[in-house]
Design brief:
InterPro entries: START-like_dom_sf. This is SRPBCC family protein. It is a single chain. The chain is of the alpha+beta class. It has one domain: Alpha-D-Glucose-1,6-Bisphosphate, Chain A, domain 4 (2-Layer Sandwich), CATH 3.30.530.20. 27% of the residues lie in helices and 42% in strands. It contains 2 helices and 7 strands. Strands 1-7-6-5-4-3-2 form a 7-stranded antiparallel β-sheet, covered by helices on one side. β6 and β7 form a beta hairpin. The radius of gyration is 14 Å and the shape is globular. The protein starts with a strand and ends with a helix.
Amino acid sequence: MTVIESTAELSVPVEKVYAFLADLNNHQQLMPENIYNWSSTEDEASFTIQNMAKLAIKVSNRIPNQELVAIPSEKAPFDVELKWTVADNGQGGTIAKHIISADLNMMMKMLASGPLQKLADHQASKLKEILG
């Protein structure tokens, strides 16, 4: 399993960050420009990654103010889990961690791990930009 992580520290409380992340409609704001055909509800989202694949995800687990997990709702090119964790940073702010776990063979790992890391970094950075 390939695990890719990116972390952002925000100055807003955990509850606010979790509330934003818990609604998949908000995730469109976190996506890079190579994501298009976005369609979402609070619990599901589908989109196309330019030059890669169409992906449909659904929330599989919610732990209020701690964790949100999304998995493919349709057959994906590889097994993947998208997880956000949020924790208090001890100063009233939040440490948000985006963790992408993907079951990649050696060839897919060489091709996809760079773009997946870029995606995780972009989303963490956009979250900090939007929520502060």
